[in-house]
Amino acid sequence: MRLSRQVGEALADGLAGKHAGDAARRLARLLGADAVALADCDRVLAAWGRFDPAAASQILAETLDELETVTDPPLRAAPLVVSGDLAGGLIVAGDVTDAELTEAARLVATALDHADLDRARERIAAADLRTLRAQISPHFMHNALAAISAHTRTDPERARELLTDFSDYLRYSFANTGDYATVADELQAVQTYLELQRARFDDRLDITVQVAPEVLPVAIPFLVVQPIVENAVRHGFESRPGVGHIAVRGFSEGPLCVIEVEDDGAGMNPEHAKAVLTGNERGTGGIGLANVDRRLRAVYGPEYGLLLDTAQGAGTKATVRIPRYARGVLAQ
Length: 332
Description:
Layout: H1 2-10, H2 20-31, E1 35-39, E2 44-48, H3 53-66, E3 70-72, E4 75-82, E5 85-93, H4 98-134, H5 138-154, H6 156-173, E6 180-182, H7 183-200, E7 205-211, E8 219-221, H8 225-236, E9 244-253, E10 256-263, H9 270-277, H10 286-300, E11 306-310, E12 316-323
Parallel strand pairs: 7-9
Antiparallel strand pairs: 1-2, 1-5, 3-4, 4-5, 6-8, 9-10, 10-12, 11-12
Helix pairs in contact: 1-2, 1-4, 4-10, 5-6, 5-7, 6-7, 7-8, 8-10
């Protein structure tokens, strides 16, 4: 079982990946083979042990043509079919049965299928991040600049501080440093955003941020928390008088990092909240929340995502639960 898992990990970058040779070596150990080679539909890409290159090329061509196991002592080869498409072949030398070879080929094909799925998820997450950056709210930018302008005469020092905050916020939002940031970086950007909003609302926003130290270095998809907070401000407080409260909390739950954004704003109907997360509520600000939910599921799997606990007139609590450590999720 451990060797099978290691084969899968070594093939995370595909047959042409830098660890494919390790996969061949582990397969040889798993099968008790003298040599193992992994090939695409043209040539051998990685091998462990000694092969006659001409013989390996010949048996590869045969197994790809016949789409079944081919034996030409001392070599055996089986096709690798990934999601219904021919991806290459597995070649072995040694005392390996057809059944063992077929099972090994199935193991490799499954690992390649998972690797393709992981790369697809990464592409989806990256595309959604580009979309979210393109949707950085013009509404917020206009109001932030208006708030800064309003302070230039009455409180020039605060206006300068807000202008610095605005610059820092834009620099972070459009940073080209990768797809992930630390929770600490995300929350710093959120605090900057909330200070700008506090100025806009004439300090009618009461803000609480409580984060456990152990989750500060956790890597999280870039721009996950800010769209949630923006939704709380826009739809919780823009149309209501009086003081609004927003609490941002971060803590650990065993192997999970939990981030909560809770407001005492207008809230929404639970069915409406469900529609927001599916992206079916256009023009309501739900695009950002649907984007966050989709990226979380793309990165961590379908069991993770954004949860909304809300009711009309009862505020909203948005919760993100993600693994504190996940393969490939590293802040740069």
